[in-house]
Amino acid sequence: MLTAGSSLSMKEAINVAALYGQYNTPQLRELSTPKLEVLRFSPDERKNIMAALKYAGHVELPKATPEHIFAAGALNCPLGNAKKSVKGKRAPRDAEPDLSAPTEVAAEYQPMPILDLHLDEITDEEAIKKEVVVCNRAPVMKAWAMVVCECLGFKRAEALSISAAYTEMNAISKGVSVGVMNKARGEHIELEQDDAQPYVDLMGRRIALMKSRDGTYRALVKGEPVDPTHAHSYIKRAFKQSSPRVFGAMRMLASSFAPNDLNTAAMGCMLVTF
Question: Is 109 found in the same domain as 174?
Answer without folding.
Answer: yes
